[in-house]
Every structure is written in structure tokens, then in C-alpha cells.
Amino acid sequence: MAVEAARVGPRAERAWGAALLVGAGVAGASVLSLATAGLSMALAVAGVGLALFLGVVLADYRVGVLALPFAILLSPDLGGGSLVHLRITDLLLPVVLAGWMLRRVAVGEPLVRTPVNGLVMVLLVAGLVSTSLGVLRGTIHPLSLGAVFLLSRVEYLLIFFLAVQAARSLPWGRRLAGALLWGFAVTAAVGLYQHAAFGPQYIVSGVRANERATFAAVLVFLLMMAAGMAVTLRAWWQRLALCALALAAAVPLLYTYSRGAYVALAAGLLFLGLRRSRGVLLVLAVLVVFSSVLLPLEIRSRISSIAVVVGAPEQTYQSWSARLGAWSVVGHQILSHPLLGYGMGALPLGWIDNEFLKEAYYGGILGLALYAAVLWGIWRTASRVAHRAPQLWARAVAWGFLAGYVALLVQSLSGTTLTAIRSAEIFWFAAGLVAGLGSREGPDTSPEERV
Fold first, then answer.
1. 248 located within any domain
2. pLDDT tens track for 150-159
3. Range of the domain at 19
4. Helix runs in 138-169, H state only
């Protein structure tokens, strides 16, 4: 392993440096072209730069993996049909995969083994079987919907795999963590801009107008990642920067008006307070006690409606009543095909606002059990990294991921957070990063890297 690292290290550093130079050069040339020659010339320069970037990715796929958080979080829809909306991620992933294949042939990069590799493959096969049976039974309409859902799961797991492979090298794992945080920072900035530009009545939804719940899930995950890292790292400036990032995410999160995200945020903070830092519990208590003073009226009224669900469910709001009614109908339908379900895509996501009920409907008891096993495997892997990784920064990333994981699981009780494209992709990227850090297959680190 050390010999291989020594052999490919300079090449990787050259690819990394080339990517930075290409990006800076193309950005500067595009701006200059836009200012002097107009939009058409700027697009032409950007196209040449894109071709050069893709060449760098083919030379070292890890450069492409670094770009994935930005593509996932910031890509608008690029068009497509009524069922499929292409994003930059869909175009970048095949190139990154090709780059990994070339690297595997060139230097013999091994497949990283994680506790969930086998379970993931079985889950994919089970999804294929249940969807095929759904097509034969006629429970999937249109048929292309089943293919879209199945291919989306393949894409999520491919993101996981590529992140694992890249993060097996600790220096690249650190770069991936940095890329994730920078992607989060730009995402928070987008939310802050929307709130500042359009006012408190505007529902913040990120780069796509109808993705309020998904954007809220991304912001919750962002905030909890930053908070988990802040309570683990020791350097004051790192803690200060991460707290600033968390606060930057908190403002647009409030103005998504997502009740599920509010509950998820409280659950994530409670987890951090119980498992990592009692100071977080104090912060949570202060937020609860002084929320009537600190929060605007429209946010307070939104939060108060959550209490109605617990204290007086007969007076609950319409969207919650609709969820309960849909869950009841879906629960009874599951009894007709309890083992393998109706197949992926048998109902649109908006009809089943519960991640686990959705898995039971699509894949039956078998599919739900496999899905739970994969999630448990990811949790165990992240927990091991959080407690045993020799590098403090790696433990901080793992603790942040675990806090975000708890928040997303809670939010998944009232939504399909781990299936909606943008929140699912960033979750699987972060999961792959943490699993790669825990693979123990990267090169040895110096004593300086262990702090």
C-alpha cells in the first residue's frame, strides 16, 4: 500500500493541481469573455473548460468526486421528460465512473470493502425482483416510473461507492470533507439570498422552486454536520467557522416553514447533547425557552402547530390529516403483497410521505428489512469512525454525519427524505465519505495528521 501510494501520489497531486488551474483559468476567461465579447463567447470558453475538466476527471476520478457535492446541491434542472429531470450529477457520474475504471486498470486500485457492500447488492437485486413482479402484475403505471426509481437507487449507491473509493486515501478524504462543507456553505448562501431578496413571506426552496421539503432536509443535514464537527474539533477558529456555517443554514431553514425539518433539527441537537456535548442540551433548552422572543411570529405559529399534533390530534392541520389518511390506505394495501411489495414506483413519492412505509409498499417486508439492514450498517460504520479514528478531523466528520443521520431519519417519518434526489444524494455522498475514512485502507498518516 505504501509503495502504491508513493507511486501514484505525485500523479494525483498533479491532477489535483491541474483541476484547480483549469477551474481558475476557465472562470477568469469566461468572465473576461462575457465582459468583452458577449454571452456566446463566454459559453464557448466555458465549453472548452468543461472538456478540459472532464479530461482531468478521466485522469484522476477523485477530482470528479470532489465536484459531486457542488453538482448535487446546486445543479438546476437541465430539462428532460415529465418523469426524468436531468441534473449535472447525472452527466458527471458516468465520467467519474469511467475515470475510476481507468485508474483501476492503470494502477490496480482495489475495491474498498465496507460492512454494507453485500447488503447493498442484495437490496438492489430485491428492488429489481419486486419491480419486475410489479410490472408483471400491472401495479406500476407507467412502466417507465419503475425504471426511474430503480435507476435512481443505483445512482445513489454509485455515489456512495465512488466516495468510499476516493476517501480511502486520508488526504483525499480530507479534501472531500472540505468540498462537502464548501458545498454546504454555498447552499446556505443561496437560502440566505432568497430570504433577503424576497422577504419573510417567501418560502425558501433553494435552486428549484418546488423543492421546499428537500431543501429543508439538506439544510438540516448541513446544520447538524457543522454542529457535530464544531463540538468535536478543538481549534477555536474551526469551531467559530462551523458555528457561523450552522447559523447561516439556520436562517433559511426556518423560512422553509417545514415542520418536519424543525422536529428533525431538535432531534439532531438532542442526540448531540446526549452523546457528545452537554452544552448542546443547554443551547437546545435556551432555544425552546426563548423561542417566543427570538423567533418571528410566522415561525412561532408554524412551530406551535406541531404541538397540536401531540396535544390535540383531532384539531390537527390538513396536511397531517392527509398523511394519516394516506398511511392508513397504504398500510392496508401492503397486506395484499406483504413479502415483495408492489415494486419501486408503484406510487409517486407524494402519496407516501414516510420513508419506511414507502419501502414496505415498494419492496414488502423483505425490502424493508434489507433497507433497514443497510441503514444499520451505515450507522455502525460511522459510529466506529466517530469513536476509533486516529485523526480528530475524521472523528469530527463522523460525529457530524451521525447527528445529521439522526435528523434525516426523524424527518423521514413524515417525508421521503432518503429518496428525494437532492437530499438522498448528499446523504449517500457523506455516508460514503465516512465509510471510506473507516476502511483503514488509506496510507499511514504522520503524527501531525492525528490531531
1. yes
2. 899 999 999 9
3. 1-59
4. 143-167
